[in-house]
Structure formats: structure tokens, C-alpha cells
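Subject: for your reference before the review

Hello V.,

The reviewers asked for a structural picture of the protein, and I figured it would be easier to keep everything in one thread rather than splitting it across files. Below is the amino acid sequence we used in the manuscript, unchanged from the supplementary table.
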Amino acid sequence: MPSTLYSYSFTPNTAWSRIFAGQQEILAYLQATAERYRLGDVLRCGVQVLGARWDGAAGRKLVQTTDGPYSAGVLVLATGPWHVPRRLEVPGIEDFDGPVFHTARWDHSVDLTGRRVTVVGGGASAVQIVPAIEAQAATVDLFQRTPQWVLPKPDLPLPTALNRLVDRVPGARGALRAGQYALQEGFGYAFRHPQAGARLLEAGARAHLRLTVRDRLLRRHLTPDYRLGCTRLLTSSTFYQALSQPHVRLHPTAVTAVRGNEVIGADGTIAHTDVLIEATGFRVGEVPLATTLHGTNGQTLDDAWGGAPQAYLGTTVSGFPNLFLLLGPTLLGGSTSAITVLEAQLTYLIAALAHLDQSGHRALEVRPAVQAVHNTTVQEALATTVYNTGGCTSYYFTSPGHNTFAWPWSTGRLVRRLRCCSGGLRRWLRTVSPLTCSANVRRLQ
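And here is what came back from the structure prediction:
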């Protein structure tokens, strides 16, 4: 995602060094934003939430944490879909003769210089990591079950002088953001209409592969057999180059076992390894706390979903008053900026809190019929998108035939729906027992 869209619309960064900024620069921006809005005053770092239960008599959530119990008028799950690592589970990995870590839990104490490194996984994490480590490592072995579509990344530097010029021209920075947004939405249109748009993108991806990888066998192993957009779209201008290096070897197979310092593939290939890196992704469909968060009838969120998470506009769930999900089910797509979606959801959330304060009610939840109609409509619309018809296996699905991740329309339509619902809460919400509502979280004494 371009840095302009990977930042908040209300706090633009006027000094990005590149179109696609790196991790350190993005982290610095987030830290500066947190300081600017004094988020440190309300953060409780290092505290794990263990579960929550609805107290109907008090009209509050009783939240259990490692810091003791809390009482909350409103509970927001901002846990994110890319949060819980999916670890490599094969025989012998616990006895591996060296460091093992997941990309999301990077061990910075491990020096890769001159080491034999094996990376397991061929998705977004591997596409970023392999080019970053191949110059340090003695050898790099990449085990990849499924090849990915990779488009070149137009990552160009943004000179300081250019940033200053953009800031001097009224409306220029907003126009830049709008242009990048329109480009991303073009990808989204192709994913929603795969017979037309996806074919053009596939031609570009094939040309990128052909021009970068000269080895025919390697090129064949890197060519997907499903439609572009069926899995998360990847962009990189360095991944194919890294795989073409003589000390980097691609294994187009799954890992089935680890034996001492040997990583063994399903096809019998063996990689002698000093450091094992798991680029195996995340448990996207498994919402943290779903098994320990209880609604009005005592049922957990996990039980209510029955393996197929759903929510109204990915944000509110029937039977769970005063609970809001950020980046919830069927809300994202292969081209959407999560930041844009989050800002739209927060507009919805703030309107709900205002409604509680102004109506004199203590709780609200989405009506079951409204949630059911919404999710039926979403699943019907997804049926013709590349997410459902592309012929691949992806984390978009938590159960066969039920896409619990993707939004089937444009981002603009999602933003408008959330804003529209924010202005007409009484049509889709039901309130519970008149009482003054307090959305503040307070510690129980």
C-alpha cells in the first residue's frame, strides 16, 4: 500500500522518503501520531485481555485482564486479522538444531551473516524477507507450496524538494492521495470483474516474471495456476531478482518434517539449515477473544458464529450489545487500505456512542434481521468475484463456500454505507433499557 494511503487522512505525513516507505519510517510516523494525540495517557501496555461478559443488570461489559477486572460501557475489539501467527507444525521442528522464529516475532539477536537460512512460506512475508536477507546469508532456501502473482512495485524516492513543492501547492497533497486511491480502486474493480480486468493484470505479472527470471524451470515454478486476485495481491521489484541469485534456491513444495538441521520437503528435497524462518502467515479468521467473549445469552462469540464469522458492516454483532469490531468479517479486499476502512468504521462507532448518550439508553446492538440480510447480500455478491471464483485456496475462507474476509464492492461504497448508517441508527439498532450511558472504561475497585 502506498505510504500516502497507509497513513491517516487527518494526520498526513509530509515527509515520506519513498512512495512505499519502509517499516522503520512507518513505525516512526505511528509513534509521532500517538504522541501528538497523547495516546500514551490511555494505553495499558503489557496487559492481556482474557475474556469479557455482558452484565445485563449493570448494562456494562465485565472484562477480565491480567491487570485485574475492568468494567466497560463499550468494548472495541481492535485486535486485527494479521495478529496471531500461524506456526509451522511438522514433526521434528521442536528439535531443530538452531534458531526458529516467525516473521511476526523476528529475533533481532540472530545474525544471519554467513548462515544457511531456510524460509518456509511463499506469501507476502516471504516476498519481503527473501530480498532483504539474501545478501547476508551464505545460502537461502525457500519452500513454497503455492506460487503467487507478483506485480512490479513502482517504489520511487520522494526528494525533500518534491515534498516541499507539494505542500506549497494548495490541494496538491489531497490530489496525490486521491490519485493513489483511484489506482488501488482500479485493482479492486478488476477483482470484482475478473473476466475483464484480471486478465490484463495477469499479462503484466507474466511479463514481469518473464523479464526478470531467465531460468525456464524456475519461471514455471513461479507461475500460478489460478486467477490474479484470488489471493492477496503482491508487489515487488526485488523478489524475482533475489530468487535468481546462485546461492538462493526455490523448493516448490511443502515442508513435511525437520530432522536435526535438515528441513525436508514433500518431494524429498533436503535443505541443510542454520536458521529457520517461518513466513507462514497468520490465523486470519480466528478473532482473538472470540472463545471467551460472552453475549446476552451467555453464548460466546465463537459459538454464535459457528465457524463462519459475520457482522453487520463488519462492525457490530447481534446478541453482543455495545461490542464493536474493527476490521471485522467481510470488510477488506485485495486492494483496500485498512486505514481507510478503519476511519470509516470509527465514524460509525462515534455515531453509535453519541446515540447512546443522547437517547438515554445504556446499550445497543444490531437487529438480527438486519445483520442476516446484510450478510446474505454480501455472500451473494462475492459469488462472482475473483475472491470466490479464482480457483485458489486462501485465508479469505474460514469454512467451505463462505468468504469471511472480503468486501465485494468498492471501498467508496463501504465508506458511504458506514456513514449512511451512522446517520440513521434507529433503523438498524435496538436499544436496551433506558439508563444514562457512560462509554468510559473504569477500573473496578
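For the response letter, the relevant points are probably these. Residues 432-445 have pLDDT under 50 and may be disordered. Residues 93-170+188-278 form a domain with the FAD/NAD(P)-binding domain fold (CATH 3.50.50.60).

Happy to draft the paragraph if you're swamped.

O.
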